[in-house]
Amino acid sequence: MPIVLTRTVNPAVDISTSVARVEPSRKLRCTAESRDPGGGGINVARVAHRLGARAVAIYPAGGFVGQRLEALVRSEGVESVVVPVQDETREDLTVLDETTREEYRFVLRGPHLRDAEWMRCLKVLADLDLKPDFVCASGSLPPGAPEDFYARVAEIVECHGVPFALDTAGPALKAALRERIRLIKPNLAELRELVGGALDEDRSLIAACRTLVAGGRTEIVALTLGAQGALLVTADAAWRAQPLPIRPLSTVGAGDSFLGSMVWALSSKLSLEEAFRYGAAGGAAALLAPATDLCHAANVRRFLPQVVIERVKEASAVR
Question: Is 36 annotated as catalytic?
């Protein structure tokens, strides 16, 4: 059983519900709500566990919501390493408009972490008496955490000699790319913010990913493109995963399901191309999960043989 360790610094309890129609000013009567443990790293851990890994999630938690988050994580079969914090853990809200079938997502900033608290989050990772097969950090930074928080995480993971995957955006991602990272998983908007340019065709997308690889900042870029599928780019190869024809119940959690499935496959010592196939199948399977649920193993494996992976023909590649 592979061991996947995840690092979430801004977790949440994700609440989801639906209304007949989202309208301003009116009191909107909601259906019964559901609650899931959330935050990018926690979601990756949930998916890895569903696929068969021993998943361990490190995250800060505070207040009543933090206690509920810990209980929800435990109910998923994921092991928790909790860093207590003074302020209340955030809740996020997803509302489905039953008329238009559009989802509205309300994401709070999260609690302000004091210096001692975010430093404790790093110390717990550094002192953990566990040798995982893969470490994955994912999600936004809360107020108070420094922009180079994930760079410090990457440095600690490198000292342990474990491969590291990162899914974040903006200044936190730029700062982290000063360290050695095996895999990053931006979406299109995040890649454009990182490298600039229109990036409106595969050639320019691959070239943009290669600038990150050529600079020695990462070995692998897994670029998710929503309804257009995904690209996987390394120094000497690029692959495209075609999207599956699925009518989504919800798109929430598709990126986390993609990454969680791919990290599970890599931690299980599958080839990079096969891990990419699992990622694409996981992202597709998440579309069948309602609200803030994630992909389920049965659907991932059902979609696996349907995923079409094509190697992109290129004139040259980075050597």
Answer: no
